[in-house]
Structure formats: C-alpha cells, structure tokens
Amino acid sequence: MTRVPTITAFETSPDRGRGLARDMPVRWALEEVGQPYEVRLVSFAAMKQAGHMALHPFGQIPTYEEGGLTLFESGAIVLHVAQTHAGLLPAEAAARMRAVGWMFAALNTVEPPIVERSMAAVFERDKPWYAERLPMLDGRVCERLGQLSDRLGEADWLDGDFSAGDLMMVSVLRRMQGTGLLEPYPRLLAYIARAVARPAYQRAFAAQLAVFEASRG
Fold first, then answer.
1. Which distant-in-sequence residues (6+ apart) come within 8 Å of 103 by Cβ?
2. Predicted pLDDT of residue 88
3. Can you tell me the distance from the alpha carbon of 217 to that of 212, in angstroms, rounded to the nearest whole number?
4. What is the pLDDT of residue 2?
5. Which regions in the chain score pLDDT beneath 50?
6. What is residue 130's three-state secondary structure?
7. Which of 3, 41, 157, 162 has the fewest CB atoms within 10 Å, i.e. the most exposed one?
8. pTM of the full predicted structure?
9. Angle, vertex CA 191, rays to CA 186 and CA 193, nearest 5
C-alpha cells in the first residue's frame, strides 16, 4: 500500500517549462499542505497504454495514487488534497463550500473560453476564418475576466483567506499570460502575482521546471 501519494506528470511537457501542465495545481496543492509526494513521469506513448489508461480513462495526466485510492482530473485531486489536509479549505462549513464553488467556477466557467481560444490559436491559426473568429473568442474570455475582476475588487483573495478556489483560479488565469488579454485587468494581474509569490507555488514550479530542463539534456 502506498503511503506517500504518487502523481503522474509528463516526461516531456508540452508547456516547455511554463508551469501550465495539469500536474502543476496538484503539485502546488501538495506543497501548500506540506504533503510529500512522488512523481512518476510518463511519455506520450505510455499515456495511451493499458497500464496508464487503467488510472486515467482518457489517457492524460495527472493521476493520483495513495493507498487504495486512485484519482484522475486535477480538480478532483486538488479537492481531495484540500479535504484531507488543513490549509486549503476554511473550517467553517459555509465558507468551505464557497471555496469549493470557486474551484468549480475556475474549471467550468472561466476556463472553457480560455481553452477554446488557446486551441484555436494552436490549431486554427492558418485557417482562413481564424482572423475573423479571434475577436469573438477574445470577447468571450474578456467577459469572464471582467466579471471576475469586478468580483475580486480590492480583496487579496476570492473569499477570505487563500484557498483551493484561488489555487485553481490562478492556475486557469495563468494560461492567458502573454496574450495581452489580462493587461486591462490590473486587479487580476496583482491577484496572480500574489499567488505565484507563495513559497508553495515556487516549490511546485521549480519541481516541474526541473523535469522539463532534464528532458532537454
């Protein structure tokens, strides 16, 4: 029976060391709660083999194994970590559920238009309709960014202290860095900066970056 959790991560990450791969929020959560963990690196070919597919039915990363428990999907893993360790969810029941609600908002409301835009930039850039479609995609992202910025206001975090909701939201927002779409929202830029300055984030980022740098050697 495994005592220390084991997660899976890319052997060669397509994010090129930017901390955007899906194991990053899991690493971050584990670092926030002080839980040691092990990492098993998998190749793209291995991700589609039966052994990995038994852990993740869609052949992706991350997965999480601890004792008899196996999980997939970064949000579910972070929620499990937050529920079983102190530090990422408030003790008070209502505040706790609000933090969980922000986790769902990050993944279900804010991330979809961001992913749609990102995928279009990768797979449709050479298509004749791309230039015409891009303003619509940008508009959808900016609508969510504006709403989130308004809700955040001058607060440091979304609801009281830093929580798993902030961890997931910042993980999603970082996908927009470098696009220019975050710049009109200084509150969100400051929000991201506060989060990534956290020592736990820095440890998680360094660990993921080390894997990428090793893969280049």
1. 75, 78, 79, 164, 165, 168
2. 98
3. 9
4. 46
5. 1-2
6. helix
7. 3
8. 0.95
9. 95
